[in-house]
Structure formats: C-alpha cells, structure tokens
Amino acid sequence: MEMEMASKEQINEQTIANTYAAMRSEINQIYSKITELEMEVNEHSLVIAAIEPLDPTRRCYRMVGGVLVERTVKEVLPAVKRNKEGIEEVIARLNEALEKKKKELTEFELKYKIRIRRGDREDSGEDASAKKEGAAQGVLVGPA
C-alpha cells in the first residue's frame, strides 16, 4: 500500500511539474510573438516615415504575397498604415492573453506551493530570436 501511495504522489508531482513547464513555455511563446510583431510595427513605421513626405503620384513597389507590385505612394501609404494598425491590435490582444496566462501561472504556483530558485526563472522573453525577415511586406520607392 505504501508503494502505491508513493507512486501516485510521484506521478501527481510529475503531472504538476509538466503542467507548470507547459504554462511557462506558453508564456514564453507569447512573449516571442509579441517581440516579433513589435519588430514588424517598427518596420512599418520606418516605411511610413520614408514614403509619407514623397509626392503621392510617385511610383513605388510593394511586395504582396511574394510578388512585387507597382503602385503609387498614394495607394501604398494607406495600406501600410492599415497593416500597422492591424498588427498593433494583435499585439494588444496578445498582451491581454499574456497577462491572463501570467495570472493563471501565479495562481498555479500558489495552489501547489511552487517556488522558483533565483536564476532559473525567465520572466522576460526579450532575448528570443524572433527575426523573421521573409514574412515582412516590403515597399520600394522608384525614381521620381
């Protein structure tokens, strides 16, 4: 009987540890995605700053689904601004989800009396390598 109880406790502890690790992993994934999307917002801001002062009738080229398309600054600028706003909305939703997951993790830690040793905890996903250059939509401005 004692062997069975010890075995069940060990399985229970292992289940708790696995669940906790999965929760932390999910939080780190959300951090990584937020970082990646913030980089895209920065790229969009740079493009907007570069083409806003230009003549609206000036030709520019935009990458759409892997195809380079010729447009004018007047046509491209609103689309880039819309994309940037859409990405910012996604970031806001991800931040909400992140806060919810952090709260769940804290409650889980309290429920099962989980303590993390200093140095083990990765509260920040800032160092995640989220450099995804191929997925960005590029804009190339042609000569006047």
TrEMBL record:
Keyword terms, alphabetized: Chaperone, Coiled coil
Region (Disordered): 120-144
Source taxon at top rank: Eukaryota
Coiled-coil ranges (or none): 84-111
CDD domains: Prefoldin_2
GO cellular component assignments: prefoldin complex
One GO molecular-function entry: unfolded protein binding
Gene3D superfamilies, per database record: 1.10.287.370
Keyword NAD: no
GO BP field: protein folding; response to cold
Composition skew (Basic and acidic residues), residue ranges: 120-134
Keyword rRNA processing: no
Family, per entry: Belongs to the prefoldin subunit beta family.
Name of the featured protein: Prefoldin subunit 2
UniProt source species: Rhynchospora breviuscula
